[in-house]
Specification:
Layout (H helix, E strand, L loop, with lengths): L1 H9 L14 H17 L3 H10 L2 H12 L11 H5 L5 H10 L13 H10 L3 H9 L10 H19 L10 H12 L3 H4 L5 E6 L6 H13 L4 E8 L2 H13 L7 E3 L15 E4 L11 H10 L17 H11 L9 E7 L1 H4 L6 H11 L3 E6 L12 E7 L9 E6 L5 E7 L2 E4 L2 H13 L6 E5 L4 E10 L2 E4 L8 H8 L6 H9 L4 E2 L2 H14 L6 H10 L1 E3 L15 E10 L12 H14 L6 E2 L5 E4 L3 H4 L9 H23 L1
Parallel strand pairs: 1-2, 1-4, 2-3, 4-5, 6-8
Antiparallel strand pairs: 5-7, 6-7, 8-11, 9-10, 12-16, 12-17, 12-18, 13-14, 13-15
Helix pairs in contact: 1-9, 2-9, 2-13, 3-4, 6-7, 10-12, 10-18, 19-22
């Protein structure tokens, strides 16, 4: 495939001088698609032309599918061979050829192809390019569907490389997709082997269609009599065009590949699927979709697509996560499974009751998270960060209900002979089988943990320490205008008060009432008056925090709140097995053991208690490495010092 890809890309040599290297893909890709379609149509071309004389519009669509099995056609009397027979009329004839495709072939307009044809003609390159592509046999007998998908992705990589773009924006590495597909199919292995099995799969970030194609290939490898109907939506014109062209070659219904922003406009809003897959962009904001998403969130109600919550505008990954959860076939219709690749932030970002935490809460409390698998780093073309496959399932097997399976597969990889962008590692077949076996075994092991959904929940409690302050009249000289105006009012003469305060000396009071009483006596003797509220403001202005001071109380004798801290109390603290239902007893036990013993007078503000969920994946698999013994470190230092001394002596001699 690399040889074929390089040969097709070498046709771009004819474009030098006319186009810059980063523009080559805009010519090579649409011509590759056109040549593939031309080869696909060759066996039925005469039959379709005959049908076009009798039928038109929708009737022709029906007749072509009935007679040829194809979901698209071209009624022009041209093909690549005939185009080359008329060099003078090539431009007009090629445009005529493209315009006679059935209406569901809208891929060429995404490239602005007619304009490129005119430019190639103007620069005297059109005949050269068409003749070169006419030499390439892209018929399925020569280049099977799987190989054609690889060819598209090879050209995309070359195009991205020349454009200084990220190839990963358009497609996902095949080894990562195969692992996701095998994990998705793992729970339905027997059902998928039944003759005549029909399933649907959906990708809301379809890219060039790699995930859909690999899913179909893997299913057909297991059961040649099975049928997988592919659905996808893609926002990028170039990727959409390639994906749709690839689906055409596979005999899929091309109407099931649609162009648009999945978050703002779900073009399959009325459908759910047996399987869903996605590799959404990491850390990309959703500002362009914000208005539509928030409008749907407000109007969608408790069962809406984004009802669980909205993540920060800076990262839309979790919107795709909840989107997939809603696209799984409902339980009463047999249920569905979904797989999505995310970076680490959806595991833990956001505090309790924030958008991300509420999304995790909804997923876990509805028992939708089946497994999370940590992938090796350096797996993807445009990033070397840690990534995770989330497997969702709304009809779990009995032994998996109420539980989440965490698998650390970060060490299961082989090094690639040649790097592709940031991709230096791959999950080969042996590693893939090992990961799937670990998933199937569903047992505790060094790289495998099975936890209850409630293990990820926690309460964030607000702990208030009572206010403790000391007071000193000597601080009056340091009061600024803002503090003075709050105590004495704007425009008031504060000098007599400040002089009396300065005369009171350096004594520090640990009780507010005693301090106010002492000040009041001084002011009364000088016939100066303040209201009770002014005395309190004055005391606050002349105070400093002091843990040795007495507690400051309000008019009713209740402690005034001082420093506030928050504590996260795990649902499972103290052996609690009731989850949020055991809230009061568990929080009280935590507070008495972990807080009250160390902070005298602290209390919990129960009105501010919040529920949160996080999945501390790294912490759960962390392996403690004890520090080296001091004797060992000393020995190494002595060795190095001795070496340095020998070198210095050598220099001296």
């Amino acid at each position: 495939m690399s040889t074929l890809g390089n040969f097709v890309w070498s046709i771009a040599d004819q474009l030098r001088g006319v186009y810059r290297p980063h523009q080559y893909g805009g010519i090579i890709l649409p011509f590759t698609i056109l040549r593939r379609l031309d080869c696909l149509l060759e066996p039925t071309r005469d039959e379709v032309r005959a049908l076009a004389k009798e039928f038109e519009g929708g009737a022709l669509d029906v007749q072509v599918k009935r007679k040829t099995g194809l979901t698209f056609y071209n009624t022009s009397h041209y093909d690549f061979a005939r185009l080359l027979d008329d060099p003078e009329g090539l431009r007009a004839n090629l445009i005529d050829y493209i315009s006679h495709f059935s209406s569901n072939i809208d891929v060429f307009e995404r490239f602005g192809f007619e304009g490129e044809i005119n430019r190639l003609e103007e620069k005297n390159r059109l005949y050269l390019i068409v003749s070169k592509f006419a030499e390439v046999d892209l018929h399925p007998d020569t280049v099977p569907n799987a190989a054609m998908g690889d060819l598209y992705e090879h050209l995309i990589y070359k195009f991205a490389e020349a454009s200084n773009e990220e190839a990963g924006e358009h497609y996902t590495p095949r080894d990562a997709i195969r692992l996701m597909v095998d994990l998705l199919f793992a729970e339905e292995n027997e059902a998928l082997l039944e003759p005549g099995t029909i399933r649907t799969i959906y990708d809301p970030t379809a890219g060039t269609g790699g995930m859909l194609s690999v899913a179909e290939e893997r299913l057909l490898e297991r059961n040649p009599q099975a049928r997988l109907r592919l659905y996808g939506q893609e926002i990028n014109d170039l990727s959409y065009a390639i994906c749709k062209s690839d689906m055409i070659g596979k005999g899929q219904d091309v109407g099931n590949i649609r162009l648009g922003d999945t978050l703002a406009d779900d073009q399959f809003f009325d459908k759910t699927f047996d399987f869903c897959m996605s590799n959404p962009p990491y850390g990309m904001d959703w500002k362009a979709s914000e208005t539509a998403v928030k409008e749907e969130w407000k109007k969608g109600g408790p069962n809406g697509r984004f009802a669980p919550g909205l993540p920060p505008i800076s990262d839309g990954q979790m919107l795709f996560l909840v989107h997939l959860a809603h696209k799984m076939r409902p339980t009463h219709e047999g249920g569905g499974r979904a797989g999505i690749v995310l970076n680490s932030s959806p595991l833990f970002n956001g505090a309790a009751e924030s958008g991300p935490s509420e999304i995790r809460r909804w997923l876990l409390e509805n028992d939708l998270v089946d497994a999370i698998i940590a992938l090796p780093t350096d797996m993807f073309f445009n990033t070397n960060i840690s990534t995770y496959v989330w497997i969702l399932d709304n009809t779990k097997q009995a032994e998996r209900r109420g539980k989440v399976h965490l698998i650390d597969a970060s060490g299961m990889w082989t090094k690639m002979r040649k790097s592709l962008g940031s991709k230096r590692r791959e999950v080969d077949e042996a590693a893939r089988r090992q990961i799937v076996k670990t998933y199937d075994d569903f047992t505790e092991a060094e790289n495998s943990k099975v936890l209850k959904n409630s293990d990820f929940g926690y309460w964030t409690i607000t702990v208030e320490r009572p206010l403790r302050l000391n007071f000193s009249a000597s601080r009056a000289t340091a009061l600024d205008d803002k503090a003075l105006s709050k105590v004495f009012g704007n425009g008031s003469d504060s000098a007599p008060f400040l002089n009396l305060l300065a005369a009171m000396g350096e004594e520090t009071y640990l009780n507010r009432d005693k301090f106010i009483q002492a000040v009041r006596e001084e002011f009364s003797a000088a016939k100066l008056k303040l209201t009770p509220a002014q005395y309190r403001h004055l005391a606050t202005a002349l105070s400093e925090p002091d843990e040795s001071a007495e507690i400051v109380t309000d008019a009713k004798g209740n402690p005034e709140p001082g420093k506030r801290d928050t504590e996260n109390v795990p649902f499972t603290y103290g052996g609690n097995t009731l989850g949020d239902a055991g809230r009061n007893e568990t929080i009280e036990a935590y507070f008495e053991a972990e807080v009250a013993l160390h902070v005298q007078g602290a209390r919990i503000d129960t009105k501010k208690t919040k529920v949160g969920y996080e999945i501390p994946f790294t912490r759960l698999f962390h392996k403690y490495t004890p520090p080296r013994a001091l004797s060992e470190i000393d020995a190494d230092l002595e060795t190095q010092v001795a070496k340095i001394i020998r070198l210095l002596r050598g220099v001296e001699s």
